[in-house]
Recover the amino acids of this structure.
């Protein structure tokens, strides 16, 4: 886990607007939190958590309340996934970010304030502390064994568990759609 407990982390802080000129995900992980992560000369700021060796390889980001607020951009979850994150834990996510995250393979996990504070403390005190995320059961298990349930809508859960996006889901229904089309021939409209 990487602690970044700042409240109101907006999408421009996750991925600054100057990186939005791309139409694909490649390279956005390196730009994730770039204004907080790097000095003006491009050198890493040693105090920023993503630059600290003890947090390298972490797959869970512990963000503050109202994570992902601000403008709508798919680039924010693209950057987080590109930086190696599979889940972000917060007490609240902005609606548009939440939807974009789920559609792009990043799991937003909402927990209560007490659990959130415990995670912040654990990840700060022991960088090797690990949590376990079970999307099937919708639980986040803390190092002490306590399992916390989290919500996720059924369709997003299905897509994440099966490694598909909305389009992939529809492609998976191709044979069902073809069967329907064959059983229900097109109607010809005639004009009077």
């Amino acid at each position: 886990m990487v602690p970044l407990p700042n409240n109101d982390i907006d999408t421009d802080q996750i991925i600054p607007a100057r990186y939005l000129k791309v139409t694909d995900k490649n390279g956005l992980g390196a730009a994730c939190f770039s204004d907080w992560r790097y000095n003006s000369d491009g050198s890493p700021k040693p105090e920023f958590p993503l630059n600290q060796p003890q947090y390298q390889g972490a797959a869970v980001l512990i963000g503050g309340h109202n994570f992902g607020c601000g403008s709508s951009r798919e680039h924010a979850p693209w950057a987080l996934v590109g930086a190696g994150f599979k889940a972000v834990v917060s007490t609240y996510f902005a609606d548009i970010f939440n939807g974009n995250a789920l559609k792009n393979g990043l799991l937003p996990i909402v927990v209560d304030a007490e659990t959130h504070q415990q995670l912040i403390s654990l990840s700060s005190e022991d960088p090797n502390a690990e949590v376990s995320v079970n999307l099937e059961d919708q639980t986040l298990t803390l190092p002490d064994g306590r399992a916390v349930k989290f919500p996720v809508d059924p369709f997003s859960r299905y897509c994440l568990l099966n490694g598909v996006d909305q389009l992939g889901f529809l492609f998976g229904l191709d044979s069902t759609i073809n069967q329907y089309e064959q059983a229900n021939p097109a109607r010809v409209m005639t004009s009077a």
